[in-house]
Write a structure and sequence with these properties.
The complex is a heterotrimer. By secondary structure, chain A is mainly α. Chain A is built from twelve helices and four strands. The chains are: A mainly alpha, B alpha/beta, C mainly alpha. Chains in contact: A-B, A-C, B-C.
Chain lengths: 293, 377, 290
């Protein structure tokens, strides 16, 4: 039972990093990206590749993951600069689908549909982090700085500029803000941190495969951010814990047919999304009506 | 709440507790990672029917001191989902032995299997990589290289079909079959004219059909599984492909045998003589037929064997007074080597694979018939 | 001959995509609601058709009727129960989009629970191809698809140009405020839009069910195509959406001549991505990028 809880806690940490970084661009910059799972994947595959071909040292794998993901995110930043709203959603959707195809086809790097197996445990100063408790501590050690850095950034003038852009891009532009640079920076920032989550995931699982990085995952991350509350600091954390604990909760309800649990889960958070948007768009943590964040 | 309701509830609770305590001290649970939902759910039913029957027989024969039961987890035939199920089985249920299926899933769980020394047994997947997943990963089904190598000589020499087009699903299984064809065909006198991969989730094949037609083959080898292979067969025939179809054991499922467009297709499977008088086989066939009203197939027999293997090994361990753990099961298997299974005596090699004679079947819309007994690969 | 075959396949696929895209574009252009659940409308229509025709074994007309009723009812219900309340209090793009997404997820999974996640298809002799020319196979279903698509477009054109409601709908996409000032009710009109948009999905759903089969996740793919076609064609232009739908169907199939099948979905998105980068207004778009 302890092993199960440790597992859950570690996955919560990893997903929390993803949710927080997604909230950064969705809730604060107004950039609705459906491609977050793609960056998660890029980080994971990079770390796996580095670990298997160079060294499993965390100090190599994590920066490599961040670098590659950050560079790739410039591809997403390009449409973000030109369009908003529905156009951006479409572009990010396109990027996500494209990423999945690349993950499935670039067999020499990603292993294709079979995935990458045999990823060595993470190496920290020569010590292999394979014990679940140690890994949980490592995950927390990555989560806490992410929370801190994000919070600091959001409270700074950068954060204020972001909110200004979200609320009215033309006004922000008129008041002298370099909108293009700020948007690009925020996308790069959000994606490279998502890369850290990817690296952690690869080391934790020992096996990664394109299934974990598909549109369904992007949707789940979006649900976490929305249900918790966009544009708030606590929201993504609340959303992550809730949505990660949900499958476990459902599997204890033995009156539900086993084969349908997956669908029931999805219906549950689909329903949550709809109801929240009608009655409480700010999410669980957020204000009653938007605009007060 | 009336007194009667309260008493009923108390009675039910008491029964529940009694039932739990009557479960016995030495009961053993083994795990099974089958697709129980999703597009490949029919395989889960098929595999499960064999596994369940074996557990029943083992309990009837009192092979173990306690009751043997199987805990099923849904892998959906997807590696990630399989991994989650495996985690649950190993960490929460603490099973020593897991039945696995599908090449992709098996590869995914092999790391945990080695790390936690839990035995994983495959009776359905045929990717050759499955032979290299460590000492704790066993296969009771001959792998794809054997299947492909068995049918090619027959197709080339006895049916005179030399130009092959391979349509394969783009995952480890499909890629393995492609590799096998590329290496085996030239030597056998055939030619792989074209190899077309299809995405795992693809369901629209008119475009692929057009490309197959333009390659002008003698025979089309289909390496896919589940409902996708039914779609391929149907849509290919709909789109004017009249050539011979060939495939591997995946064609043995009822869905394909009932498909009119599949009539005449040839496929390989393990040679299983359902009329054999060998006691293990006879009992299996008779009980299966009595329960399900039809003859079993090789897949069902394989998972029956997988569970029976566990029961036999655990029985030996218990009589030696050793605990039933993955490590001990492995040691016992290496020691015993040959087992009385459905299909006769089966020997498991050092690397955890089996070699068996194969047969070639033809779909005739009435349960199929065997057209050739190929040699063991 | 391969190219010609792929071209014909592309036209068939394109005709169906065009129908679906126009439905989405109509709704989006008139009401500015990102009706992500349009894919769900499609899924529901297809499954209802499958249910009535294959499982209940009724006449195909009854099945088509049932599918139409289901699709229209669904579209109207989503508008009434989900979008309207949201628009009453703040209705930002984001909120509506998320709610629509949620509806899509629910519908997809309910279909999965009711009908199973495996692939199901409707059996009909119409899907069997006939060899028109050497090595050129066309099924009657393709011909029917193209004819029906053309018929619907002609009907839609007539509706929008000749009837009062049609003209009001076109006005709505230009300027909802003015429409209200003229005494017409935007709420009533948006109901008409949703009904019409959802109706357009039905022939495509029925034909797709008969030709390639269904699974609950199909809604995603459909939605992707509608979205791509609407943007590439230009938001606000129905003609653009139809042309773009056709283009995407052609691209998806013609790509098979040069690339592996895995890449055909990616081709659609590369096209979309390039348009968004270089010409967000699409082919015939009138609206500016905000």
């Amino acid at each position: 039972m302890l092993a199960y809880l440790l597992n859950l806690a570690t996955l919560i940490c990893i997903n929390a990093v993803l949710a927080i970084t997604l909230n950064f661009i969705m809730g604060y910059a107004g950039i609705f990206s459906l491609a977050h799972a793609a960056f998660f994947g890029v980080g994971a595959y990079t770390a796996a590749y580095v670990a298997m071909h160079a060294s499993a040292s965390l100090f190599l794998a994590i920066p490599a993951a961040m670098l590659v993901t950050g560079l790739l995110s410039l591809v997403l930043a390009l449409p973000a600069l030109r369009v908003r709203g529905e156009y951006f959603v479409a572009a990010s959707l396109g990027l996500q689908v494209l990423a999945v195809t690349v993950f499935s086809e670039w067999k020499s790097v990603t292993g294709g549909l079979g995935g990458t197996i045999g990823i060595p445990p993470a190496d920290l100063f020569g010590h292999a982090v394979s014990d679940p408790v140690e890994f949980l501590l490592l995950a927390l050690a990555c989560l806490v700085p992410v929370i801190l850095v994000t919070t600091v950034l959001l409270r700074s003038s950068f954060g204020r500029s972001l909110k200004a852009i979200r609320d009215s891009e033309s006004a922000a532009h008129a008041s002298g803000k370099n909108v293009a640079a700020i948007k690009t920076l925020s996308v790069v920032f959000s994606s490279s941190l998502a890369g850290i989550a990817g690296a952690l995931y690869a080391f934790y699982m020992g096996f990664i495969n394109v299934e974990s990085f598909m549109l369904d995952t992007s949707v789940l991350l979006m649900a976490m951010v929305i249900i918790g509350g966009t544009g708030t600091l606590l929201g993504p954390l609340v959303g992550t814990v809730l949505l990660m604990a949900l499958p476990g909760l459902f599997s204890y309800m033995s009156f539900l047919p086993q084969t349908e649990i997956g669908s029931i889960q999805q219906i549950a958070y689909g329903l949550a999304m709809v109801l929240l948007m009608i009655y409480r768009p700010g999410g669980i943590v957020g204000a009653r009506s938007k605009g007060a964040a | 709440m009336s007194r009667i309701t309260t008493m009923l509830k108390a009675a039910l609770l008491a029964c529940g507790l009694l039932g739990a305590s009557a479960a016995g001290a030495a009961d053993v649970t083994i795990g099974a990672l089958f697709p129980m939902s999703g597009p490949n759910a029919s395989y889960g039913d098929i595999f499960g029917s064999g596994a369940n029957l074996a557990a029943e027989h083992a309990n009837a024969d009192k092979l173990l001191s306690g009751k043997l039961s199987i805990q099923y987890e849904d892998s959906q035939a997807l590696p990630q989902a399989g991994l989650i199920g495996m985690n649950k089985l190993v960490n929460v249920q603490k099973v020593p032995y897991v039945l696995s299926a599908f090449t992709g899933v098996s590869k995914a769980i092999s790391t945990i299997s080695s790390r936690t020394r839990t035995v994983a047994v495959n009776g359905g997947g045929v990717g050759p990589d499955l032979a290299e997943l460590g000492p704790y990963f066993w296969n009771v089904i001959p792998l794809a290289n054997v299947e492909v190598r068995s049918i090619i000589p027959y197709l080339v020499k006895e049916r005179g079909l030399k130009r092959f087009v391979l349509v394969y699903v783009d995952d480890p299984l499909g890629q393995a079959i492609r590799k096998e064809m590329e290496t085996t065909l030239p030597g056998a006198g055939g030619e792989l004219v074209q190899a077309l991969s299809v995405p795992v989730t693809a369901q629209q094949f008119s475009g692929v059909a057009a490309r197959v037609r333009s390659a002008n083959p003698d025979v089309v080898y289909i390496a896919s599984y589940g409902s996708q292979q039914s779609q391929i067969v149907k849509q290919f025939r709909d789109n004017g492909i009249k050539q011979q179809f060939a495939s591997y054991t995946a064609f043995s499922i009822p869905e394909i045998n009932a498909l009119p467009e599949a009539k005449g297709s040839l496929y390989t499977s393990q040679r299983m003589d359902w009329n054999s008088q060998d006691p293990v086989t006879k009992r299996f066939v008779d009980d299966y037929r009595a329960r399900h009203g039809k003859l079993p197939t090789a897949y069902i027999a394989n998972y029956y064997n997988a569970v029976r293997l566990f029961a036999l090994l655990a029985h030996d361990l218990e009589s030696k007074g050793l605990p039933v753990t993955g490590e001990n099961l492995l040691k016992q298997r290496v020691e015993t080597k040959t087992f009385d299974m459905v299909g006769g005596k089966i020997t498991i090699d050092e690397n955890g694979t089996v070699s068996m004679p194969m047969q070639i079947n033809e779909i005739d819309g009435q349960g199929g018939k065997v057209v050739s007994a190929a040699e063991a690969g | 001959m391969l190219l010609l075959q792929l071209l014909i396949n592309g036209v068939q696929a394109g005709a169906l995509y065009a129908l679906i895209a126009v439905g989405f574009s109509l709704i989006f252009g008139s009401t500015r609601i990102f009706h992500f659940a349009h894919g769900a409308t499609f899924t529901i229509a297809a499954y209802v058709f499958y249910y009535v025709y294959s499982l209940l074994q009724l006449h195909w007309l009854a099945a088509v009727l049932a599918a139409t009723v289901a699709a229209v009812a669904f579209g109207l219900a989503v508008n009434r129960l989900v979008y309207t309340p949201i628009q009453k209090h703040e209705g930002s793009f984001f909120t509506v989009f998320v709610a629509s997404f949620g509806v899509g997820i629910i519908a997809q999974n309910v279909c999965g629970m009711l009908f199973g996640r495996a692939f199901v298809s409707v059996d009909t002799p119409l899907s069997r191809s006939v060899e028109l020319l050497p090595d050129l196979y066309v099924s009657p279903l393709s011909g029917i698809a193209i004819v029906i698509a053309l018929a619907f477009f002609a009907g839609l054109q007539a509706f929008l140009m000749r009837t009062h409601t049609g003209m009001a709908l076109r006005a709505l996409s230009d300027n909802p405020g003015l429409v209200r000032a003229y005494g017409l009710s935007p709420q009533r009109l948006s109901m008409a839009v949703f009904a019409l948009g959802s109706l357009l999905v039905v022939p495509a759903a029925v034909l797709l069910a008969a030709s390639s089969g269904l699974q609950p996740a199909l809604g995603h793919h459909i939605m992707l195509i509608s979205l791509a076609a609407t943007i590439v064609g230009g938001v606000g232009s129905l003609r653009g959406a139809a042309c773009a739908g056709l283009l995407l169907g052609l691209a998806e199939n013609l790509a098979l001549n040069w690339f592996e099948p895995q890449w055909s979905e990616a081709v659609t998105f590369i096209v979309l991505f390039l348009f968004i980068l270089f010409r967000p207004a699409g082919f015939f778009g009138r609206t500016t990028v905000s």
